[in-house]
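Reviewer has doubts. Consider these tokens.
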Amino acid sequence: MDTVGTVTLALRSELRFEVDFGLACVPRLSTDAMPPLGQGGGPDSEMLLMAAVGNCLSASLAFSLRKFRNDEVPMRATVDAILARDERGRLRVRSLAVDIHLGVPASALRLVDRAVAQYEDFCTVTQSVRAAIPVAVRVFDSAGAELSA
């Protein structure tokens, strides 16, 4: 089994934590719960989950496109989460929706259909999260055409 590394969290006050990724060139991140529990002084756990899924999917798509000899493709992703209460009244992430927007038309990309058909399989985080939370993903080119498999 491969290890990723260690992330260290230190409580600074109330519900604010300092996150150290253990990487020399990466600054520490301040997290906080949203009001009314916290002050909203940084991303909360739900936002970090959303960022992790969006980042992993985007990086996997970039990797897949490069695998088919495409130059680096500008892209941006948006991630929305739906929160709902479970049977015990506890708030849970019920679903995630990710839209990835490419900065070029599909016609400018080599083997884009093959790249889009396989990139999600490369995404460690999303495939792991999907065991518990539905994750819907769509990919669009610069003209707004949906490329999703």
Remarks:
- The chain has a mean pLDDT of 95.
- Residues 1-42 form one domain.
- The longest helix spans residues 45-67.
